[in-house]
Write a structure and sequence with these properties.
Low-confidence stretches: 131-137
Order of helices and strands: HHHHH
Distance between the termini: 22 Å
Mean pLDDT: 84
Radius of gyration: 17 Å
Shape: elongated
Number of domains: 1
Number of strands: 0
Helix content: over 70%
Largest sheet: none
Strand content: under 5%
Structural class: mainly alpha
């Protein structure tokens, strides 16, 4: 249960850190050009979205063979799961909203998503490593 909760928390941290840096610093000018964005985002809805996504991905990972393999497999799992989320943001949102530059939008969203889900995959793999918690000092309990 601890690993499951940690998997959700690292998803929220990886997502918030990556997306906050992207939206408010690195790509701030890009997002400022978008006519459909709120001046003040509703953070509680963003947090709820991260909580739902993190819970779903943590559940899928914990109940799959990916969790019992290598760190690289956890990164691959995160990239596959992330592709579902990022593809919607990068392509479907560009198709629905009045985006000034679709290529710029796609590039920003895919690159931020790649960073986000790589961080998440590494953290997920580290959490899922089999660690004998009784081996606190290396000599056993």
């Amino acid at each position: 249960m601890i690993r499951f909760v940690l998997a959700i928390l690292v998803y929220i941290v990886a997502t918030f850190a990556t997306q906050a840096v992207s939206h408010f610093t690195i790509n701030a000018a890009h997002y400022a050009e978008l006519p459909h964005l709120r001046a003040e985002p509703i953070f509680s809805l963003g947090f709820l979205s991260m909580l739902i996504q993190g819970t779903a991905l943590a559940f899928l990972h914990a109940n799959s063979e990916w969790a019992r393999r290598s760190l690289l497999n956890s990164v691959l799992f995160a990239w596959i799961g992330g592709s579902l989320i990022v593809s919607y943001i990068a392509f479907a949102e560009a198709a629905k909203y009045s985006i000034p530059s679709i290529p710029a939008w796609v590039w920003v969203e895919i690159s931020a998503g790649f960073v986000q889900f790589t961080l998440y995959g590494v953290a997920l793999g580290l959490i899922r490593r089999k660690v004998d918690l009784t081996q606190v000092d290396g000599r056993g309990a």
